[in-house]
Specification:
The protein has 139 residues and is mainly alpha-helical. 50% of the residues lie in helices and 0% in strands. It is globular, with a radius of gyration of 19 Å.
Length: 139
């Protein structure tokens, strides 16, 4: 009998290709969405790395983080390699990034152009699972 081939783990990767080291030395902007979320979930499965797992999950939502955020936890855990803990970590990270984007600055908001209204309101409305109609009263 022959031995099954050794799985290719992140420890086998070149040092500069490892996500944590890449983020540390080159910054988060150099990493893909899959690589960033792979750092959060920490590991994949015996069949695929965390990066490959996240690429597969992101492909299922057309690489759209808003759609990923809208996926129910029950749907995330259906992916082999994602359990309750990893699903919760993904949801928490996406919720935190939404809160960061929504964070209000201390300066008063002046909405003088439609693009400013869009920038101000988009995070409020973009992730809703249903359609809403809003009215802004301006002076």
């Amino acid at each position: 009998m022959s031995k099954p081939p050794k799985s290719f783990t992140i420890k086998d990767w070149e040092f500069v290709d490892r996500q944590r080291e890449k983020l540390w030395h080159q910054g988060a902007a150099t990493l893909s969405k899959a690589e960033l979320i792979a750092i959060i979930i920490g590991s994949g499965s015996t069949q695929e790395s965390a990066v490959e797992l996240m690429k597969r999950i992101l492909a299922s939502v057309e690489n759209n983080l808003q759609k990923l955020q809208q996926l129910p936890l029950e749907h995330l855990v259906k992916f082999k390699g994602i359990g309750k803990v990893k699903a919760v970590k993904i949801k928490a990270a996406l919720a935190l990034s939404k809160r960061l984007a929504e964070q209000k600055s201390k300066a008063p908001i002046v909405l003088t152009q439609s693009k400013f209204v869009y920038e101000h309101m988009r995070y409020e409305l973009a992730l809703l699972p249903h359609e809403e109609f809003w009215v802004l009263y301006l002076n």
